[in-house]
Backbone:
Protein backbone atom coordinates (compact mmCIF):
# COMPACT_ATOMS: atom_id res chain seq x y z
CA UNK A 1 0.00 0.00 0.00
CA UNK A 2 2.83 2.35 0.82
CA UNK A 3 4.45 1.63 -2.48
CA UNK A 4 1.29 2.45 -4.33
CA UNK A 5 0.89 5.65 -2.36
CA UNK A 6 4.38 6.79 -3.27
CA UNK A 7 3.76 5.92 -6.89
CA UNK A 8 0.50 7.84 -6.96
CA UNK A 9 2.11 10.88 -5.35
CA UNK A 10 4.94 10.83 -7.85
CA UNK A 11 2.50 10.70 -10.73
CA UNK A 12 0.57 13.66 -9.32
CA UNK A 13 3.76 15.68 -8.96
CA UNK A 14 4.80 14.87 -12.53
CA UNK A 15 1.38 15.90 -13.85
CA UNK A 16 1.52 19.19 -11.91
CA UNK A 17 5.01 19.92 -13.19
CA UNK A 18 4.09 19.15 -16.77
CA UNK A 19 0.97 21.27 -16.48
CA UNK A 20 3.01 24.17 -15.09
CA UNK A 21 5.50 23.95 -17.94
CA UNK A 22 2.72 23.85 -20.49
CA UNK A 23 0.98 26.86 -18.94
CA UNK A 24 4.25 28.78 -18.76
CA UNK A 25 5.07 28.00 -22.37
CA UNK A 26 1.57 28.93 -23.40
CA UNK A 27 1.82 32.25 -21.57
CA UNK A 28 5.19 33.02 -23.15
CA UNK A 29 3.88 32.07 -26.58
CA UNK A 30 0.75 34.15 -26.05
CA UNK A 31 2.77 37.15 -24.91
CA UNK A 32 5.12 36.79 -27.85
CA UNK A 33 2.32 36.89 -30.38
CA UNK A 34 0.64 40.05 -29.04
CA UNK A 35 1.13 43.24 -31.03
CA UNK A 36 0.67 46.92 -30.23
CA UNK A 37 -0.65 49.39 -32.75
CA UNK A 38 -1.20 53.15 -32.52
CA UNK A 39 -4.59 54.52 -33.47
CA UNK A 40 -5.46 58.11 -34.29
CA UNK A 41 -8.66 60.10 -34.25
CA UNK A 42 -7.98 63.77 -34.83
CA UNK A 43 -5.64 64.84 -32.02
CA UNK A 44 -6.53 61.77 -29.87
CA UNK A 45 -3.97 58.94 -29.83
CA UNK A 46 -4.63 55.43 -28.47
CA UNK A 47 -2.44 52.34 -28.30
CA UNK A 48 -4.09 48.95 -28.68
CA UNK A 49 -2.32 45.72 -27.66
CA UNK A 50 -3.71 42.33 -28.69
CA UNK A 51 -2.93 39.21 -30.70
CA UNK A 52 -4.83 40.77 -33.60
CA UNK A 53 -5.12 44.44 -32.56
CA UNK A 54 -7.74 46.61 -34.23
CA UNK A 55 -8.44 50.31 -33.86
CA UNK A 56 -11.74 51.31 -32.21
CA UNK A 57 -14.51 52.64 -34.40
CA UNK A 58 -13.64 56.04 -35.77
CA UNK A 59 -9.88 55.54 -35.32
CA UNK A 60 -7.27 54.80 -37.94
CA UNK A 61 -3.66 53.73 -37.94
CA UNK A 62 -2.84 56.50 -40.39
CA UNK A 63 -1.23 59.39 -38.59
CA UNK A 64 -3.00 62.64 -39.46
CA UNK A 65 -1.00 65.36 -41.21
CA UNK A 66 -0.73 68.41 -39.00
CA UNK A 67 -0.93 71.59 -41.06
CA UNK A 68 1.51 74.26 -39.97
CA UNK A 69 0.04 77.71 -40.31
CA UNK A 70 2.86 80.13 -41.11
CA UNK A 71 3.22 83.13 -38.88
CA UNK A 72 2.39 86.42 -40.54
CA UNK A 73 5.42 88.36 -41.70
CA UNK A 74 6.35 91.31 -39.51
CA UNK A 75 4.92 94.61 -40.59
CA UNK A 76 7.10 96.56 -42.98
CA UNK A 77 5.24 99.80 -42.56
CA UNK A 78 7.56 102.72 -41.99
CA UNK A 79 6.92 104.92 -39.00
CA UNK A 80 7.18 108.66 -39.63
CA UNK A 81 10.29 110.35 -38.30
CA UNK A 82 9.84 112.71 -35.38
CA UNK A 83 11.51 116.01 -34.59
CA UNK A 84 13.35 118.41 -36.91
CA UNK A 85 15.84 116.89 -39.35
CA UNK A 86 18.57 118.89 -41.05
CA UNK A 87 18.59 118.53 -44.83
CA UNK A 88 21.32 119.36 -47.33
CA UNK A 89 21.42 117.81 -50.79
CA UNK A 90 22.91 118.66 -54.17
CA UNK A 91 21.11 117.22 -57.20
CA UNK A 92 22.65 116.90 -60.65
CA UNK A 93 20.84 115.72 -63.74
CA UNK A 94 18.90 116.90 -66.78
CA UNK A 95 16.19 119.45 -67.43
CA UNK A 96 14.15 119.38 -70.64
CA UNK A 97 13.02 122.87 -71.60
CA UNK A 98 10.82 124.36 -74.28
CA UNK A 99 11.09 128.11 -74.63
CA UNK A 100 9.46 130.70 -76.80
CA UNK A 101 9.37 134.50 -76.96
CA UNK A 102 6.61 134.53 -74.35
CA UNK A 103 7.28 131.65 -71.95
CA UNK A 104 9.70 128.96 -70.77
CA UNK A 105 8.53 125.51 -69.72
CA UNK A 106 10.53 122.84 -67.94
CA UNK A 107 8.67 119.74 -69.12
CA UNK A 108 10.87 117.27 -67.26
CA UNK A 109 13.47 117.35 -64.49
CA UNK A 110 15.40 114.24 -63.42
CA UNK A 111 18.42 114.33 -61.12
CA UNK A 112 20.37 112.31 -58.57
CA UNK A 113 21.35 113.77 -55.21
CA UNK A 114 24.22 113.47 -52.76
CA UNK A 115 24.81 114.86 -49.31
CA UNK A 116 22.84 114.82 -46.06
CA UNK A 117 19.55 114.25 -47.88
CA UNK A 118 17.90 111.66 -45.56
CA UNK A 119 18.14 109.01 -48.28
CA UNK A 120 16.13 111.09 -50.76
CA UNK A 121 18.58 110.73 -53.63
CA UNK A 122 16.13 111.09 -56.51
CA UNK A 123 14.53 114.25 -57.89
CA UNK A 124 11.80 114.68 -60.49
CA UNK A 125 9.82 117.79 -61.31
CA UNK A 126 8.53 120.38 -63.77
CA UNK A 127 8.00 124.14 -63.98
CA UNK A 128 7.04 127.10 -66.11
CA UNK A 129 7.55 130.84 -66.37
CA UNK A 130 6.36 133.81 -68.42
CA UNK A 131 9.33 136.14 -68.04
CA UNK A 132 8.91 139.82 -68.82
CA UNK A 133 12.33 140.77 -67.58
CA UNK A 134 15.82 139.29 -67.49
CA UNK A 135 15.13 138.20 -63.88
CA UNK A 136 11.59 137.08 -63.11
CA UNK A 137 9.50 134.68 -61.01
CA UNK A 138 8.46 131.15 -61.98
CA UNK A 139 6.28 128.26 -60.81
CA UNK A 140 7.52 124.73 -60.23
CA UNK A 141 7.14 121.59 -58.14
CA UNK A 142 9.07 118.40 -57.55
CA UNK A 143 9.30 115.13 -55.68
CA UNK A 144 12.33 113.94 -53.75
CA UNK A 145 12.36 110.15 -53.40
CA UNK A 146 14.38 107.27 -52.02
CA UNK A 147 13.97 104.07 -49.99
CA UNK A 148 10.23 103.94 -50.66
CA UNK A 149 9.74 107.42 -49.19
CA UNK A 150 8.86 110.68 -50.89
CA UNK A 151 8.89 114.39 -50.07
CA UNK A 152 6.84 116.82 -52.14
CA UNK A 153 8.10 120.38 -52.64
CA UNK A 154 6.89 123.46 -54.52
CA UNK A 155 8.65 126.74 -55.26
CA UNK A 156 7.08 129.67 -53.40
CA UNK A 157 6.67 133.32 -54.47
CA UNK A 158 10.33 134.06 -53.72
CA UNK A 159 11.48 131.88 -56.63
CA UNK A 160 13.44 133.74 -59.30
CA UNK A 161 15.00 132.68 -62.59
CA UNK A 162 17.63 135.13 -63.78
CA UNK A 163 19.33 135.00 -67.19
CA UNK A 164 22.97 136.05 -67.27
CA UNK A 165 22.51 137.42 -70.81
CA UNK A 166 19.69 139.36 -72.38
CA UNK A 167 19.24 136.73 -75.10
CA UNK A 168 19.89 133.03 -75.63
CA UNK A 169 22.18 131.21 -75.45
CA UNK A 170 22.59 131.99 -71.76
CA UNK A 171 22.81 130.50 -68.29
CA UNK A 172 19.74 130.65 -66.05
CA UNK A 173 20.35 130.94 -62.30
CA UNK A 174 17.61 129.76 -59.92
CA UNK A 175 17.08 131.09 -56.38
CA UNK A 176 14.24 130.97 -53.86
CA UNK A 177 12.53 128.67 -51.40
CA UNK A 178 10.95 125.26 -51.91
CA UNK A 179 8.07 124.67 -49.50
CA UNK A 180 7.43 121.10 -48.32
CA UNK A 181 3.83 120.28 -49.20
CA UNK A 182 3.62 116.63 -48.09
CA UNK A 183 5.30 113.26 -48.12
CA UNK A 184 4.91 109.53 -47.79
CA UNK A 185 6.57 106.79 -45.71
CA UNK A 186 8.69 108.23 -42.94
CA UNK A 187 8.08 111.72 -44.38
CA UNK A 188 4.31 111.53 -43.97
CA UNK A 189 3.10 114.79 -42.45
CA UNK A 190 6.44 116.55 -43.00
CA UNK A 191 6.55 120.36 -43.23
CA UNK A 192 9.24 122.97 -43.68
CA UNK A 193 11.01 125.18 -46.17
CA UNK A 194 14.19 124.43 -48.07
CA UNK A 195 16.40 127.14 -49.54
CA UNK A 196 17.12 126.39 -53.19
CA UNK A 197 19.82 127.51 -55.58
CA UNK A 198 20.65 126.10 -58.99
CA UNK A 199 21.41 126.71 -62.64
CA UNK A 200 21.02 125.39 -66.16
CA UNK A 201 21.89 126.68 -69.63
CA UNK A 202 19.77 127.49 -72.66
CA UNK A 203 21.90 126.59 -75.66
CA UNK A 204 19.57 127.17 -78.59
CA UNK A 205 19.44 130.64 -80.16
CA UNK A 206 16.05 130.02 -81.72
CA UNK A 207 12.79 129.93 -79.76
CA UNK A 208 10.33 127.08 -80.16
CA UNK A 209 12.77 124.21 -79.83
CA UNK A 210 12.91 121.61 -77.03
CA UNK A 211 16.33 120.86 -75.59
CA UNK A 212 17.83 118.82 -72.76
CA UNK A 213 20.57 120.44 -70.73
CA UNK A 214 22.48 119.87 -67.50
CA UNK A 215 20.90 121.03 -64.23
CA UNK A 216 22.40 121.51 -60.77
CA UNK A 217 20.15 122.24 -57.79
CA UNK A 218 21.07 122.51 -54.09
CA UNK A 219 18.48 122.31 -51.31
CA UNK A 220 19.23 123.13 -47.68
CA UNK A 221 17.03 123.57 -44.62
CA UNK A 222 15.10 121.69 -41.96
CA UNK A 223 12.35 119.11 -42.30
CA UNK A 224 9.83 119.20 -39.46
CA UNK A 225 7.55 116.39 -38.31
CA UNK A 226 4.40 116.32 -36.18
Residues:
Amino acid sequence: MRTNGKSTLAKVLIVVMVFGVVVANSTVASAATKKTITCYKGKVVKKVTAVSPKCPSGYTTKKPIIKVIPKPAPSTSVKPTSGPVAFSGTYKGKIVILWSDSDVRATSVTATGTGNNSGLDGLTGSGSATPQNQCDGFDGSGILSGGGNTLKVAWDSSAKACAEEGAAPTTINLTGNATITGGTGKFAGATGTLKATGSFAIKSKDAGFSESTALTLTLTGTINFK
Notes: Residues 33-70 form one domain. The mean pLDDT is 83.
